[in-house]
Specification:
The complex is a heterodimer of chains A (245) and B (331). Chain A is mainly alpha-helical and 245 residues long. The mean pLDDT of chain A is 89. Chain A has one domain. Chain A has 13 helices and no strands. Chain A is 80% helix and 0% strand. By secondary structure, chain B is an alpha/beta fold. Chain B has 11 helices and 14 strands. A 6-stranded mixed beta sheet of chain B has the order 6-7-8-3-9-10, with helices on both faces. A 4-stranded antiparallel beta sheet of chain B has the order 2-1-4-5, with helices on one face. In chain B, strands 12-13-11-14 form a 4-stranded antiparallel beta sheet. The longest helix of chain B is centred in the middle third of the chain and has 14 residues. The C terminus of chain B is likely disordered. The chains are: A mainly alpha (245), B alpha/beta (331). Chains A and B meet through helix 1 and helix 5 of A and helix 2 and helix 3 of B.
Chain lengths: 245, 331
């Protein structure tokens, strides 16, 4: 476990030396801030609309899915491959899976830091609206976002392990995110087992079907944790397979 | 300490290392010599547990590199050829990170000690990206040394350095080699000659010679040539010298120096000196003429000299004209 933590901390700190990480942070805050202001303005104008937390927090999910995760996970392992540092890490007493999990954890911690800072908007909203916002809804939303982020970060790290250069890794990761976003759609046009399968695979379905409505469903929690573990397992296997080539 | 038996590695259809067998004793500096693409890096990667061999076994300190990979990795320090380092980290933080991965107690003391060893204490707070190539090489060495490994594996440790840095790194390796087993690869022949106790020469993945640099020279030369300059008349000493066992020829050259030739591994110089001293001949100069390791290398890595099978004695290859010096760099 100590190797995972050592790698995770190193990875986490490395984001603070990366200009792109700051850009990503600003993009998330800016998009959320602008949308918060729009919702608030609309609410003031109409006098009948109370800004909804789940709508606001969509602006964490969109940038996460389509910008933050592909961009910030692209380098995690592909860069180690490109620069050769992977050789040094894997000739130290570090297991392949410890490296992958450490990389994921460090990146995930960085995303959690960004997500944690977005609490400022619900906090402000809590002061503005009367009698305050629904706290249980807030907890469900942030739990869902955290689990969703864990899963897509793991997918990003897995995709990164497949490449030797960050740019193809980012494009492939973006492709995976789009796939995960739309994979549930065929479920609406099919029936029976096939429909159920597509709906079950849909990552957004597991968020919008429960957490988005303020419900923490164990079934969805298990889905996100399973997807995280599966992606990390596959990433470890890719590294192991690379040794045997 | 290192024991490799029948090491073979295929990349797809290409055989990078073929049936390589060698060992390295504790406290020995073993040179791994070969042209680019000979299989040096592949062999080193196998030794460090980075990749498994297609067949064959390697044990380091009694541990198998595949089955007991973590144990092996704990006792091995490794510096890859490209010296891969995290450019965005400070030297001190990087070494601390590598030390943490090796679960060292009293981490700061280890980092400071190794920084002192590689003479980088003053640059401890510098970002790695700001360091010169030579300094990065030192940081690479420092990470390989931080856990005081029993075995140090260095892949082309002086490549890309300027002459002053090369001398410094070699000095450092020799100093470390007094206590540790070091295996270093190089295609710089004089480097192997200067640093190594023993040299393995490989070409196209096959071992073509294995011995001390001095013995390799003798084996390829086939005979030893000793030149002696006397204060007195050299002709009077010739009959005496001809009686020494092993000497096949004793002549006086145009400079008035005695040139002796002998066969076999025995150094005839002590006997020559004793004989001349007993005959009250004052010796002004005596030296053994040897082939440069570069010459041997070209001889042994020549296409027609490659052994056809493992049964052939690799060091008994006949000297021949070399025409393949291209592509093999020297300092």
């Amino acid at each position: 476990m100590s190797n995972i933590w050592t790698i995770a901390i190193k990875e986490y700190k490395s984001f603070f030396h990366s200009a792109i990480a700051y850009v990503i942070g600003v993009v998330v805050f800016l998009s959320l801030g602008i949308y918060f202001w729009v919702l608030l303005s609309y609410s003031i104008q109409t006098q009948a609309y109370v800004p909804e937390m789940q709508v606001l927090l969509d602006w964490i999910i969109f940038p996460l899915f389509f910008i933050s995760v592909p961009v910030l996970t692209m380098r995690t392992i592909s860069d180690e491959n490109r620069t050769g540092t992977l050789e040094l890490i894997l000739t130290a007493p570090v297991r392949d899976w410890e490296l992958v999990v450490g990389k994921w954890l460090g990146t995930y911690m960085f995303f959690l830091s960004i997500i944690a800072l977005t609490w400022i908007y619900p906090l402000m909203l809590n002061f503005i609206v009367d009698p305050g916002i629904d706290q249980s809804m807030l907890i469900a939303l942030y739990t869902g976002i955290s689990l969703l982020t864990a899963a897509i970060t793991a997918v990003g790290v897995f995709v990164s392990s497949l490449f030797k250069n960050p740019v193809p890794a980012m494009l492939a990761s973006l492709g995976m995110m789009i796939l995960l976003w739309i994979i549930g759609a065929p479920g609406n046009y099919t029936s029976g087992f096939v429909s159920e399968l597509f709906k079950y695979l849909s990552i957004t379905g597991h968020y919008y079907g429960s957490f988005y409505n303020g419900v923490i469903d164990l079934k969805d929690v298990i889905y996100f944790i399973s997807l995280t573990i599966l992606a990390l397992f596959l990433g470890s296997r890719v590294i192991e397979a690379r040794r045997w080539k | 300490m290192i024991n490799a038996v029948g090491l073979t590695k295929y990349y797809g259809q290409n055989c990078a290392v073929k049936n390589l067998t060698f060992n390295a004793k504790k406290g020995e500096i073993l040179g791994f010599l070969g042209p680019n693409g000979a299989g040096k890096t592949t062999t080193m990667r196998i030794l460090t547990g980075f990749m498994p061999p297609s067949s064959g076994t390697v044990t380091i300190g009694g541990f198998d590199v595949i089955d007991q990979s973590l144990e092996v990795r704990r006792m091995v320090g490794y510096l890859p050829e490209s010296v891969p380092l995290y450019q965005d980290m400070r030297v001190y933080d990087y070494l601390k990170f590598m030390g943490q991965l090796r679960k060292l107690n009293d981490l700061d003391a280890h980092v400071e000690k190794v920084l002192e060893e590689v003479d980088m204490l003053e640059r401890a707070d510098s970002y790695i990206s700001k360091l010169s190539k030579g300094m990065r090489q030192r940081v690479g060495l420092a990470q390989a040394l931080i856990h005081e490994p029993e075995v140090l594996i260095l892949d082309e440790p002086t490549i890309g350095l300027d002459p002053v840095q090369i001398i410094e790194v070699r000095k450092l390796i020799r100093q470390i080699g007094k206590e540790k087993t070091i295996m270093l690869s190089t295609h710089i022949l004089s480097e192997a000659q200067q640093i190594c106790d023993r040299v393995l020469i490989i070409n196209r993945g096959e071992l073509v010679a294995e011995d001390s640099p001095e013995n390799l020279q003798q084996k390829v030369l086939g005979k030893r040539k000793v030149t002696v300059q006397l204060a007195g008349d050299p002709q009077t000493a010739i009959p005496l010298l001809q009686q020494i066992e092993g000497i096949t020829s004793a002549v006086v050259n145009e400079k008035g120096m005695i040139v002796l030739e002998s066969i076999g591994d025995v150094d005839i110089r002590p006997k020559v000196i004793t004989t001349l001293a007993n005959a009250r001949q004052d010796i002004l100069e005596i030296y053994s003429e040897t082939l440069n390791l570069e010459d041997i290398f070209f001889e042994l890595t020549k296409e027609e000299n490659l052994p056809q099978s493992r049964d052939e004695a690799p060091t008994e290859l006949a000297p021949a004209e070399t025409d393949e010096k291209e592509g093999v760099e020297n300092e």
